[in-house]
Amino acid sequence: MKCRRCGEVAQVALPSHHTGFCPSCFLDFFRGQVERAIRRHRMFGKDERVLVAVSGGKDSLALFHVLAELGYDVEGVHIDLGIAGSSEPVRHWVEEFCRERGYVLHVVETAKDGLAIPDVKRAVRRPICSVCGKIKRHWFNRFAYEHGYSALATGHNLDDEAARLFANTLRWDTAYLGDQGPALPAEGKFVRKVKPLCRLTEFETAAYCFFQDIRHWHEPCPYSGGASFTGHKRLLGDLEDTSPGARMAFYELFLRNAKPVFEAAAKTGTEELTPCAECGYPSSGEVCGVCRIRKMVAEKEGA
Amino acid sequence: MLEKSPAVNSGFPLAPPPLPGYLLPMVTIHLEPKKSTLTFQRINTVLQLLGKLNLRANEALIIRGRELLTPDRRIHPGDTITVRLVMSRG
Prior knowledge:
The complex is a heterodimer. Chain A has helices spanning 23-40, 58-69, 87-101, 117-123, 128-146, 158-170, 174-179, 202-211, 230-242, 246-269, 289-302, and strands at residues 12-14, 19-21, 49-53, 73-80, 105-109, 151-153, 183-184, 192-194, 274-275, 282-283. Chain A is α/β, with parallel strands linked by helices. In chain A, α2 (58-69) crosses α8. By secondary structure, chain B is an alpha+beta fold. In chain B, 13% of the residues lie in helices and 27% in strands. Chain B is built from two helices and five strands, in the order αββαβββ. Chain B has helices at 6-10, 46-52, and strands at 27-32, 36-40, 60-64, 67-68, 80-85. Chain B has a five-stranded mixed β-sheet with strand order 2-1-5-3-4, with no helix packed on it. Chain B is elongated, with a radius of gyration of 20 Å. Classes of the chains: A alpha/beta, B alpha+beta. At the A-B interface, β1, α8 and α9 of A face β4 of B.
């Protein structure tokens, strides 16, 4: 297979685009897709400060790197979850990545907020992944808001977005379908949330990391039984294999044709958010979910 | 009259006969992130390798040295290939 642009030997085949690229042309393609997502969904401009949520996986590291390459004003935030034998090496990995490239990285330790994940796991009965996700989202938003960033960027890619859309569609979850998309505007103490990799697949992000010599963290979280939506990703992968481009069409056509309908429907049934009595961040109850978890952990540890 | 052999007539030495499959160097496959290694007697293309591993084309990076291989590329006896799965694992 030859590169569509320059005729060199292709190293990346992209059936969904009916094409293949050599490393150099693939990197141009990748940056172009990120720029296109940012522009089309009005995510942020070059004069705005953007905070990138960095977990240490390929998607977040690729996102941080490509936004810096494209000249955006980006800094990273990593959340140290306090999981013995896991959080420490991941944090070190992320710190090394940023130090080597001269990127600014901030680290938030949940243990300092009374929310070390092993303690949380002992205190709550719900699946730990959903609780951990809630704590991370709270701290990503809180850090971005308190430090004056214009937007919070996460490394969700097309596979993540399509799998999430598929899950929401199976349940016809109006509220989630109305909310889903690559850019969620700022509202009150919620900062703008953006997903600049929404036009790129996991394969493309992995190939970008390979060509840019970005070594990413491979080990799964010891508490995770596997990534969320893995089964849905496989189903959509099978579909993509027989109908290249189906995944992108599913997501893009949802954004264009269906999301506005769900958005309007969701607005009518949305409960109003009020400031949490303890942390002041938006909550559907008097005290937000994260503050309730903190209280449960304190009670369990004190018992 | 004695007949000369065609090889001598053409002026070129005889090409060595192809080695039987069991004498060819094995293809070594490193699987990531599982960190396991497999060897195969004979695999001709990346597509065949993906088939043997039950993978779809864009489910893994197929790495030989410093290059990625597309499904149509040939794999040679003695090659060392890394198969890096791309799906996030949480």
